[in-house]
TrEMBL record:
Biological processes, Gene Ontology terms: carbohydrate metabolic process
Name of this chain's protein: Glycoside hydrolase family 2 protein
Residue ranges constituting the Glycosyl hydrolases family 2 sugar binding domain according to the UniProt record: 64-154
Glycoside hydrolase family 2 immunoglobulin-like beta-sandwich domain: residues covered: 165-270
Domain of life the protein comes from: Bacteria
Length: 837
């Protein structure tokens, strides 16, 4: 059955608008006309008083109504009609002409409703969706609200190809041939049997037919038949991260010469194997996962899930050196899976953040026991044909991991995934601190070599300290258990091993969050166990990657996080005013801990990681912020360094500057305005970096790398003058007229010679005219009180980003940026229907 996007002309009712009155009037004159996907939360007024607090970035929830009025063709009376919702946050209830037809409480699970018994063929019909996100404190991150992913209309004959029933495997792959196994379910909802014929054709990445077959199938009334066929493909082009080549499978179902149904699936030919001796292999070649955890929001456009937004994020992560993403902590969107297939990005798709124990007052733990099987089935159905998906993650930091019942539930869930898909391994992400919380006192006493009584005395002394000191000590204590000798001693503790023993014995590999000291140790305890760092500290990448390289059974590392996100606000910020991370620090709305910030700018740690991975040879210069030199800073274990790639610091002439140079080269020589600041060791033996403290002097800062005496690349920063120019750069200038395409325009400040000025700040206003609209606009500033639907923003570290969304009609879009004292910048975009005249 084919999906047709059904995103146009929905009526959106905000909280406070009366859905009953809307129902009486049929939606006429009420609400706002929107095109889905739509995030209601991003347009809400942020307030420090919201119950959600910093977890959602101070965005409140609400109960929202979406109404779709449509005429049902009379022929629908003889067909089956469904509507599929790829993501509604959350507690979705769906009504047709006032009658309830279905829904789902989960915010990330794809679900569908059948309209057959509720439609009025030939007349106007009303579809109403209520998305109830009013129970605040239901998410630990920015969730978004409403119908934030695609809605699809599905109309089929009574005899049809079952939705999501086409399952494609490649069980045999050799250099000269591959076997493609196609399984499909044909359903008959009619009252008599029907003899049908199923035609299957495979085409290669160049659309050349490479295999076909046809199958006669008699489908009896109110029954279904499962067909399975193996097709040989000669000289297959294998899918991999380096060569993400995709094949297409087309299916046509006919009876008496009439086409009853059609379907099309994209797939890749590749194999996966996993063991502790040879690690993870794709197409028989070892692959180490250079991984990034990501959340689902798209920065300045909120949770709106558009194909282009997901593609951009995927591509930027790939360009930054990652080859794998972990969807944390919820099922990934179809749009992102499609992008990962095309870009060659591996995927770990995740079921849930919790099982039966809550992490928040109104989170999914209250629904998980009743809905996890449905959620798992939908996740696998969504993922099965995507070559990018290599693994399922059943849960994140499950608190019941240290109990017998938790281990039992782990077995049940893992077994369910294996029954749904036996081609991919299954894991679960384990946090030792949460799992062993009930035994923490015993563990800590053993590590510190003290008695429980002494521990209690130390806690009493800490409680008696002044509030500011106590807060700092608490933060440092938390850091000790996340990173450093104390964290390693905890991770390797025998009590921790005993507590986790049963839970970790269940899955195909073990995923550890922040338990780095266990990664290598596990091979001694369990020689056949495979380990993955499912969530790790970005500041620990040097040690982590060394462990990955030196141990076959450790298949990779997934940093938290690859891309910055909304919510968990301020957890990665640098505080110079005594505040702490992971606290409600208004007005911070951004986590501020991604290698790439929310507008797509690569932070220095991203280039450092690329060097550690062995993917970059040239050095990279980063300068710690001069305006905070010498100040005491509070930061979490997730923070790296408060630095930026800039040598423009007006007003700090002669003041000290700390310059960090990241390099694969053995030595670095730093030059300031042509004068050598000396040579220092770098490269792997010196953790890929060296640092200089020099007086700030405007001009040119250059780092030159040397290996075995030969130059091995250089990096240059140049001081910029006063901003006089607005530079605007669109990542694409031709958009599809589908109402869902995007052009991302980066705007930044430059001096008269075009040099970027990251120090200056200016308010910039954007205007959009023509065949498109402004989807979002903003900076990466974590502490702004501005809104992403405003048209005026102040630059942060020199940059702003505008997301322009196409309309449904062909035409031009003129985007203009203006700022006091600067010449305006104009970008022209074209919206194209793709139709030939």
């Amino acid at each position: 059955m084919k999906r047709i996007k059904w995103n146009d002309d929905w009526i959106f009712l905000k909280p406070g608008e009366n859905p009953m009155m809307a129902a009486i009037s049929g939606g006429g004159g009420c609400g706002e006309i929107v095109t889905l996907p739509h995030d209601a939360m991003i347009h809400e007024e942020r307030t420090p008083d919201t119950k959600n607090g910093h977890q959602t970035g101070f965005y409140p929830g609400g109960c929202y109504t979406y109404i779709k009025n449509f005429t049902a063709p009379r022929e629908w009376a003889q067909k089956t009609v469904m509507v599929e919702f790829e993501g509604v946050y959350q507690n979705a209830r769906v009504y047709v002409n006032g009658d309830y037809v279905g829904g789902h409480p989960g915010g990330y699970t794809c679900f569908s409703v059948v309209l057959d018994d509720f439609l009025k063929p030939g007349e106007n019909n009303e579809l109403k969706v209520i998305a109830n996100n009013s129970a605040e404190e239901n998410s630990r991150w920015y969730s978004g609200s409403g119908i934030y992913r695609d809605v699809n209309l599905i109309v089929g004959n009574q005899v049809h190809i079952g939705m999501d029933s086409v399952r494609i495997q490649t069980p045999e792959v050799e250099e000269d041939l591959a076997v493609v196994q196609v399984e499909v379910t044909i359903r008959n909802q009619g009252g008599r049997k029907l003899k049908t014929r199923l035609y299957i054709e495979l085409t290669d990445p160049q659309w050349t037919p490479v295999g076909k077959t046809e199958i006669p199938v008699t489908v009896f009334a109110q029954d279904e038949e499962v067909c399975r066929q193996r097709i040989t493909v000669e000289a297959p082009v294998l899918w991999s991260c380096e060569t993400p080549k995709l094949y297409t499978c087309r299916l046509v179902l006919k009876a008496e010469g009439e086409v009853l149904d059609e379907a099309e699936e994209v797939f890749g030919i590749r194999t996966i194997s996993l063991n502790a001796r040879k690690g993870l292999r794709i197409n028989k070649k070892e692959v180490k996962l250079r991984g990034a955890c990501i959340h689902h929001d798209n920065g300045i456009i909120g949770a709106v899930t558009l194909e282009r937004a997901e593609e951009r994020r995927c591509r930027q992560l790939k360009e930054a050196g990652f080859n794998c993403i972990r969807s944390s902590h919820h099922p990934l969107s179809r749009a992102m899976l499609n992008a990962c297939d095309r870009e060659g990005m591996l995927v770990l798709d995740e079921l849930s953040d919790c099982w039966t124990r809550s992490k928040n007052n109104n989170d999914y733990a209250q629904y998980f026991p009743d809905y996890w099987e449905f959620d798992a089935k939908q996740l696998v159905a969504k993922d099965f044909n995507h070559p990018s998906v290599i693994m399922y993650v059943t849960g994140n930091e499950i608190q019941e991991a240290g109990t017998a019942k938790g281990a039992q539930l782990n077995r049940i869930i893992t077994r369910k995934f294996h029954s749904l898909d036996d081609t991919r391994p299954v894991t679960v992400a384990i946090n030792g601190l949460l799992s062993c919380m009930d035994h923490m006192g015993e563990i800590m006493c053993g590590i510190m070599g003290i008695t429980m009584e002494q521990m209690q005395q130390m806690q009493a002394q800490a409680a008696a300290q002044p509030a500011s000191d106590a807060g700092s000590d608490a933060a440092n204590g938390s850091t000790d258990l996340m990173k450093g000798p104390m964290a390693d001693a905890f991770a390797a503790n025998n009590i921790v091993t005993e507590i986790l023993e049963e839970f970790t014995s269940v899955t195909d590999l073990v995923g550890y969050n922040y338990l780095t000291a266990r990664h290598a140790k596990e091979h001694e305890l369990y020689p056949d166990r495979v380990i993955l760092g499912t969530e790790t500290l970005p500041s620990d990448i040097v040690r982590l990657w060394k462990i990955v390289k030196e141990n076959k059974h450790v298949i990779g590392d997934m940093t938290w996080t690859g891309y910055d996100y909304l919510g968990e606000a301020g957890s990665g910020c640098f505080y110079y005013d005594g505040r702490q991370g992971f606290m409600p620090n208004w007005p911070i709305s951004v986590a501020y801990m991604g290698d790439i910030d929310i507008i797509g700018y690569r932070r220095p740690i991203s280039y450092f990681r690329e060097i550690v991975y062995g993917l970059r040879t040239a050095p990279y210069i980063a300068v710690e912020r001069l305006n905070h030199y010498g100040e005491k800073v509070n930061k979490s274990a997730w923070a790296w360094k408060d630095e930026i790639a800039s040598w423009t610091w007006d007003g700090y002439e002669g003041k000290p500057a700390i310059v960090n140079v990241y390099a694969a080269a053995e030595e670095i020589e730093l030059f300031l305005n042509g004068k050598s600041m000396g040579r220092k060791n770098a490269g792997e033996e010196h953790e890929w970096m060296c640092s200089y403290e020099i007086p700030y002097e405007p001009g040119e800062l250059k780092a030159v790398g040397y290996t075995q005496g030969n130059e091995a690349g250089q990096d240059i920063l140049v001081t910029a003058g006063r901003p006089a120019i607005l530079k605007a750069r669109a990542d694409r200038r031709v958009l599809k007229a589908d109402g869902a395409d995007l052009s991302y325009i980066t705007v930044n400040l430059a001096d008269e010679e075009g040099r970027l000025n990251l120090w200056a700040e200016k308010e910039i206003t954007v205007s959009v005219e023509g065949a498109g609209t402004l989807q979002g606009f903003g900076s990466a500033d974590p502490a702004t009180e501005n809104r992403y639907d405003n048209t005026t923003w102040k630059t942060y570290d020199g940059y702003l980003l505008a997301a322009i969304r196409s309309g449904k009609e062909a035409g031009k879009i003129k985007v203009t940026f203006t700022a006091d004292g600067c010449e305006a910048a104009e970008v022209m975009l074209t919206v194209d229907t793709g139709k030939k005249e």
